[in-house]
Amino acid sequence: MTNSSYVVTEDGGRQNMYASEPRPYIDPDYTNYAKEAELANARWAMIGFIAAIGAYATTGQMLPGVF
Fold it and tell me: Tens digit of pLDDT per residue, the chain (67 long)?
């Protein structure tokens, strides 16, 4: 077998091309990820709480179809 950068030629003359893995990149200016993730989590929790209140107000059940 002969190997060049990403092409492998087998003994029978068949060639396989393997993908190159991209290098990871981390943006050095993006340091507020944890703060933004917490804000997004809190907002989704508030939406879920309001949806639960709306479901209880319209159906009278805590989880419609379950309780």
Answer: 444 466 778 788 888 777 777 888 887 777 778 888 999 999 999 999 999 999 889 988 877 777 5
- Residue 67 and residue 61 in contact, taking contact as beta carbons nearer than 8 Å: yes
4: alpha, beta or left, given left = phi > 0 and alpha = psi -120 to 50?
Answer: beta
Q: What's the CA gap between 47 and 59, in Å, rounded?
A: 18
Which sign, positive or negative, has the C-alpha torsion 50, 53, 59, 63? positive
The structure's pTM equals 0.49
Report the run of H or E that residue 35 belongs to, with start and end.
helix 33-59
Q: How many residues does the chain have?
A: 67
Domain locations in the chain?
A: 32-61
